[in-house]
């Protein structure tokens, strides 16, 4: 049985308000205790409103590093770039003072890009203070896709590089993902999902054996501190 706590909200707006307050509090506490804070966030469509809210929170952003849970192997000006989403919605307002460390690097191959990203990520102290995950309806989280050629390895909690290359037919393009170790080791791990379809997907995944067919369950089961799930119905607009 995976140990996690559900937080349900009446709307995406109410969820964004609460999740941004919770995350801001964790980041501010980390700065107070250790002088710096680091957060890894997800891409896709879901987090934009949460990012807008978080960007307006009054915390010492100049002491915060923002990075990504995963990235598509596309440059930052691509509409598919998770870094672009973060630049447009999170690194704005008060959060414009935060440092950003992306995962995409120009390289001949995805393996070389991952190696470059891992070198930069290694400079962010472990554990990360906050990780906010998303999830797809195929039960992937970060870029741990069930059909990734290396999914068994990706889901291992073993020591290794902080960023790994991912090849998955369903993913659309090659990917870069933070390691299981970095994600599951976070001091505060949240999963942000919206809509009845994602809720059903998650409930089904949690009833499955954590592993390649249900990467989200594997991550939640491996979490050092029980993950918190933030859910709201899908937006009406
Ligand atoms: O491909 C990705 O998808 C998931 C879920 O995205 P959403 O659009 O359904 O919210 C996301 O968590 C991940 O970071 C992203 O790269």
UniProtKB/TrEMBL annotation:
A Pfam family (short name) is Glucosamine_iso
The UniProt function text for this chain reads:
Hydrolysis of 6-phosphogluconolactone to 6-phosphogluconate.
The EC designation for this entry is: 3.1.1.31
Pathway participation: Carbohydrate degradation; pentose phosphate pathway; D-ribulose 5-phosphate from D-glucose 6-phosphate (oxidative stage): step 2/3
Q: Which organism is it from?
A: Nitratireductor aquibiodomus
Q: What is this protein called?
A: 6-phosphogluconolactonase
Which GO biological process categories is it annotated with?
carbohydrate metabolic process; pentose-phosphate shunt
Catalytic activity from the UniProt record: 6-phospho-D-glucono-1,5-lactone + H2O = 6-phospho-D-gluconate + H(+)
Q: Which gene encodes it?
A: pgl
Cite the GO molecular-function annotations of the record.
6-phosphogluconolactonase activity
Q: Which UniProt keywords apply?
A: Hydrolase
Q: What's the superkingdom here? A: Bacteria
Q: Which family does it belong to?
A: Belongs to the glucosamine/galactosamine-6-phosphate isomerase family. 6-phosphogluconolactonase subfamily.
Q: Does the keyword Protein transport apply?
A: no
Would the keyword Iron-sulfur turn up in this protein's UniProt record? no
Taxonomic classification: Bacteria, Pseudomonadati, Pseudomonadota, Alphaproteobacteria, Hyphomicrobiales
Domain spans labelled Glucosamine/galactosamine-6-phosphate isomerase: 11-222
């Amino acid at each position: 049985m995976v140990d996690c706590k559900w937080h349900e909200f009446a709307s995406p707006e109410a969820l964004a308000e609460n999740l941004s307050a919770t995350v801001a509090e964790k980041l501010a506490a980390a700065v107070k205790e250790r002088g710096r804070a680091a957060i890894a966030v997800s891409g896709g469509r879901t987090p934009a409103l949460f990012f807008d809210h978080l960007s307006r929170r009054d915390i010492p952003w100049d002491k915060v590093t923002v990075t990504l849970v995963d990235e598509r192997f596309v440059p930052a000006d691509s509409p598919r770039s998770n870094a672009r989403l973060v630049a447009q919605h999170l690194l704005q307002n008060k959060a414009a003072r935060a440092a950003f460390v992306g995962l995409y690097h120009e390289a001949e191959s995805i393996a070389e890009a991952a190696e470059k990203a891992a070198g930069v990520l290694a400079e962010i102290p472990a554990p990360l203070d906050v990780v906010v995950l998303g999830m797809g309806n195929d039960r992937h989280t970060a870029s741990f896709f069930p059909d990734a050629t290396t999914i068994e390895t990706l889901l291992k909690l073993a020591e290794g590089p902080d960023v790994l290359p991912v090849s998955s037919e369903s993913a659309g393009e090659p990917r870069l993902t933070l390691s299981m170790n970095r994600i599951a080791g976070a001091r505060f791990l949240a999963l942000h999902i919206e809509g009845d379809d994602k809720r059903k997907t998650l409930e089904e995944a949690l009833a499955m054996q954590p592993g390649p067919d249900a990467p989200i369950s594997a991550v939640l089961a491996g979490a050092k501190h029980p993950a918190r799930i933030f859910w709201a119905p899908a937006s009406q607009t």
